[in-house]
Amino acid sequence: MELSRPRGTRDFLFEEMKQRKVVASTLKRIFENYAYQEIKTPIFENLSLFTQKSGDEIVDQLYNFEDKGERKLALRPELTAPVARLYMAQMQKSPKPIKMYYYGSCFRYERPQAGRFRQFWQFGCEMIGGKSPEADAEIIAMASHSLKELELDGFEIHLGHLGILRGILDEENIPGKTQDHIMGLIDKGDPKLLQEFLDESEIEPDTQKILYKIIEMKGTSKVLDEVKELLKGRNKALEALFELKELVETLAMFQMDDYVLNLGIARGLDYYSGMVFEIYVPSLGAQKQICGGGTYNLVETFGGEKVESTGFAFGFDRLMAALISQKKDLNLKVAAEVFVAPISPKTRGAAFEIAQKLRYHGIATEVDLGRRKLKKLLSYADNLGVKKVVLVGERDLEEGKLTIKDMQTGSQELVNEKELLEYIKS
RNA sequence: GCCGGGGUGGGGUAGGUGGUUAUCCUACGGGACUGUGGAUCCCGCGACUCGGGUUCGAAUCUCGGCCCCGGCCCCA
Asked: What is the ipTM of this complex?
């Protein structure tokens, strides 16, 4: 029998699960502080949900199958499309903006490597409707706030706007498909390939120069003025630039200044339309991106009424990898706070009574289930990391007392049975 | 899909020019030891990724598969 895990999957043991739980609950707390509400969608969807958006090519990158009713299904490769589907089906007439977040695993049929698995987790959010610089700013501020709360060091937020590049190309009457191809080349970050393509295209040399310059533009809000000069007379691109400028000004009101403007961000996706941002942790290596998002128009590509949305998702596993590599103290809980140890077989019954009492009062408690000797119990309790051991002895019980051992100091104290709860809680 | 490096008890490891019973730490089980024994000591359990080849003999050499690690492609 084959007992190994499928390729690209992982088991998470106690310690790792605790770390992941701490991080997930921190993110939940922050998102909820920004008035986002959690949703959950199915692990599998109709295959067409994903092919409609990204074309049939993606089929070889996802886990798809036919069920017994010959329905074509796929394990979800991401969560934006399912959320858009949910919105279309049930929320189109809900008051805007709709703010929701999700946490769940996604599946892609890819070659596993650093920071890349076949089952991976995304923690993200979508704000549907209510597009404004304020909305975009709040989202970016929330992403940044989340990482600060987790005390992640060395992350870089890169912020751009696709409307600038698209605007230039639109005004040159470049057809959509060609535009997508160019954006793809820009996203790759390989100047040679881009140049080769542009050389063969019919794009004016002047425009080409501007494109090259813009995708190199990085830095503080000063670059916006430089870009403005470059874009003289190109109204569509200027409009996008103005939007970005407004966003930058609004970010200042959200006390956000730790980002880099990067007009070379293209994000391979064709449904992104406006502001885009990505967050990197360079120390992670090849898969350094831990977050990506922006403004998009997905609902429209699904045939719904046009509504602008903004969203982003953390690559949860990469975020974990970054935090763990920085050895962040994640406030891990131990499995049990208290261990109840019968000193002799005769007090086992009393030990269960005490353990149940503690548990009903919300104290994580472990008790001897293996009829082991005291030495083993103390050793086990030590391994568990409990703070206190309640020693249940015959002689003490006769006087209505219990011995409580502090595992850190080794000191012991006799306590009245009735005062146990108070003593433990203090 | 491509390139490179790997895989030894539950966890972490030594051995690698072929040659007795495969090293050590830890964890686990038992005992010294039936109310303080979380210590110490003793005993025990437990592994060469899988399959083929070379060989009298393979953890070691060789070929292939699987999986892991790193990189490329891709990355919604």
From this structure: 0.86
Same domain for A375 and A295: no
Residue A194 is predicted with a pLDDT of: 86
> Of residues 335 to 374 in chain A, which lie within 7 A of strand B by their beta carbon?
343-344, 370, 372-374
Same domain, A109 and A243: yes
> Residue A330: pLDDT above 80?
no
Name the residues in A281-320 having a C-beta closer than 7 Å to nucleic acid strand B.
Answer: 285-287, 292
- Pair (A282, A384) in one structural domain: no
> Would the Cβ of A325 be found within 7 angstroms of any atom in strand B?
no
Using a CB cutoff of 8 Å and minimum separation of 24, what contacts does A268-273 make? Answer: A268/A183, A268/A184, A268/A187, A269/A296, A270/A180, A270/A183, A271/A53, A271/A296, A271/A297, A271/A298, A271/A301, A272/A162, A272/A296, A273/A162, A273/A163, A273/A166, A273/A297, A273/A308
State mean pLDDT over A394-422. 92
For residue A347, is it within any domain? yes
Whether the pLDDT of residue A10 is over 80: the answer is yes
- Structural domain total, chain A: 2
Residue with tokens 């000797």: A373
Q: Do A358 and A318 share a structural domain?
A: no
CB A28 within 8 A of CB A103: yes
The per-residue pLDDT of chain A, averaged, comes to: 91
A59-70 residue pLDDT tens: 889 999 999 999
* A3 is a domain residue: no
Residue A1 has pLDDT above 50, yes or no: no
Residue A284 has φ and ψ, to the nearest 5°, of -75, -15
